[in-house]
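Review form for a predicted model. The reviewer records the input and the model, then writes brief findings.
Reviewer: anonymous (R2)
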Amino acid sequence: MNQIRVTKEFRFEAAHALKGYDGPCRNIHGHSYELSVTVIGTPETDRTSTKLGMVMDFGDLKILIKQQIVDPFDHALLLNADVSQEEFQKSGEPFSNVVFLPYQPTSENFLLDFAKRIRDFLPSGVCLHSLRLRETASSYAEWFASDE
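Model under review:
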């Protein structure tokens, strides 16, 4: 049977700053991110299965992405761990949800991180096909499993 791609879209708000960047994005600023997650697989053919005809239940995909990406990143300030946490705390900035990441918080790096976070939790026979992360109305980055 042919493989089918299934996509679900998510939205979350987050702020970030790019350490060492030579433009205005070195300052804390925010985005309304839009994430599209596409998985690929063969639709279930077992007539006794509650998932008959599905590659993956959209509800199950929603739970997975919410747990692995949306909940940890939504309304967070995302910073490179190279930013001195002590200096940041001394600055008196009123942030309670700060996530220090082991990478520069760019859309490109988010996608590499998100792919790792998602892959291990997909059901058997379902593979991560692609991710698209829209940062602004006119800017997005994409990740495809086939490019690895």
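Findings: DSSP finds three helices and six strands in the chain.
Further findings: The first strand starts at residue 4 and ends at 16.
Recommendation: see findings above.
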